[in-house]
Design goal:
Elements: E1 15-18, H1 22-32, E2 36-41, E3 45-49, E4 57-60, E5 80-83, H2 87-100, E6 104-109, E7 113-119, E8 125-131, E9 150-151, H3 154-158
Parallel strand pairs: 1-4, 5-8
Antiparallel strand pairs: 2-3, 3-4, 6-7, 6-9, 7-8
């Protein structure tokens, strides 16, 4: 079989999540995280975005209304990663989550990025992160990317709000 390489400009356009309660999901994604409702598809689906895109996240109850969350120890979505444009934007959402006392599942510095982890009301994993500039990504002596998972400097991150 001939080798194929996907074009470098390819991006993940949106994620579509099965949820058990559409309003509860909207309360989280729009009310807590600040996405905007673009349109509803009857009373079974909603499409939300940042900045007016047709949708970054689809939420539906087509096969999941009233059901429990997907099992943790099974194949499926690990998390949806939401990329913030600047470090100060990540600091702002972290402060918002702290103020709301929203439970976090982790925080990490990956060298290439800083990340905050939490679950939505249906226990779908959510990563909120920002990427460091590419020229600052850690590399080994051979120039290979060396991602890692270390403690997130929370005080330093929140300090962005005072700058």
């Amino acid at each position: 079989m001939e080798t194929y390489t996907i074009p470098a400009q390819t991006r993940i356009g949106h994620v579509h999540l099965k949820v058990t309660d559409l309003q509860r999901a909207l309360d989280f994604y729009c009310g807590v995280l600040g996405f905007e409702l673009v349109t509803m598809y009857g009373d079974q689906a909603a499409f939300i975005s940042a900045g007016g895109y047709h949708h970054h996240i689809g939420l539906n109850t087509w096969h999941s209304k009233g059901m429990g969350p997907a099992p943790v120890r099974a194949a499926g979505l690990y998390h949806t990663a939401i990329l913030f444009p600047e470090r100060k934007d990540l600091a702002a959402i972290l402060q918002r989550l702290i103020d709301l006392k929203y439970p976090l599942t982790g925080m990490s510095d990956h060298g290439v990025s800083e990340a905050i982890y939490l679950n939505d009301p249906d226990q779908n994993g959510v990563e909120l992160y920002w990427d460091r500039p590419k020229e600052l990504w850690p590399k080994d002596d051979n120039g290979n990317l060396t991602m890692f998972t270390e403690y997130l400097d929370v005080e330093g991150l929140l300090g962005e709000l005072k700058a």
